[in-house]
Amino acid sequence: MHKKDPINYSDPNQKLEIAIALDSLTALIGFKPLKQITKMLKDYPEIRDFIGANVRSISVKRNNFKEMFTRLVKKSLSDPGELNMVIQNLSNRISKKKTKTEVEKYFIALHKKYDNDIGLLILFFLNLAHLKRGEAIFTKPGIPHAYLKGNILECMSNSDNVIRAGLTPKYKDMKNLLKVLTFELGSPKVSKGFRKGNSVVYKTDAKEFVIQIFNSSNKALNFENQTGPRILLILNGAVKISFNGEGELKSEKFIKGNSVFLPSILSKFKITTEKSWSFVLVSVP
Fold it and tell me: Could you give the CA distance from residue 127 to residue 188 in angstroms, rounded to a whole number?
């Protein structure tokens, strides 16, 4: 994609990312399990009829889902008029319901903002996940996802590439999306990390990064024999980083919202504070 369209895809790298909820997070992550998709098509005949899906065949063979979703995308591109009609009919019916599901509430709210966007139908195919503070979701390339509500800490591999399907005013590229989707079906895996001293470590399949979140009221933390570059982000409080530079002890103070790049040459440093604090330390495994 980078070679054919360097303007919209600025590098040849794949994009892996993790999102950690700082308070809470509501997100769309990956395609639902097959049984849920089959039920969804029964509950929303407007979508089923638009793509001409045979619910019985979908429930028999998992591979049929890829074919069905591809039909949905291609028809939305070739017949935007019918797409608009289907979305409007669905909106009219859902609006009349006294009790709406959470997904239906998002559909109505997003319809007011994005009108006849294909993302309004894709919404029903994706898992709606709720993460509590400290919980995380890791997303591999080819997994559709969108963050709907909440504050997160996000870390990703070295790539600016984003293939957007809908629900955005930015550039959308459905044709390339179909090429990269894995079409994996199932519930998302939520991670809580694991304890290591006074930190929580979030380790993923990514070879590019590992995240530690430190929460403490201790006055000092000593880091020794550190290898590789690191990025430190202050979440709360203020910290002072002390290190040996050019033969003398130096220190710098950083406050909430500051980020600091710690180069590989800085193999030993100390973090001190007078009050409770929390910070994120991202390193290369």
Answer: 7
Rounded to an integer, what distance in angstroms lies between the CA atom of residue 178 and that of residue 130? 26
**What are the structural domains, with CATH classification, of the chain?**
31-129+158-191 (1.10.441.10), 194-283 (2.60.120.10)
| Given the residues 62, 71, 164, 230, the one annotated as active site | 164
Please name which of 50, 69, 45, 44 lies closest in space to residue 58, comparing C-alpha atoms: 69
Handedness of CA 56, 60, 65, 70 (dihedral sign): negative
148: Cβ–Cβ under 8 A, 6 or more apart, which residues?
Answer: 26, 27, 28, 106
For the stretch 20-77, pLDDT in tens is 999 999 999 999 999 999 999 999 999 999 998 666 666 646 678 998 999 999 999 9
Mark whether 230 is an active-site residue.
Answer: no
β-partners of residue 167 are none
187: helix, strand or coil: coil
Q: What is the pLDDT of residues 201-229, one digit of tens each?
A: 998 988 889 999 998 766 788 888 888 89
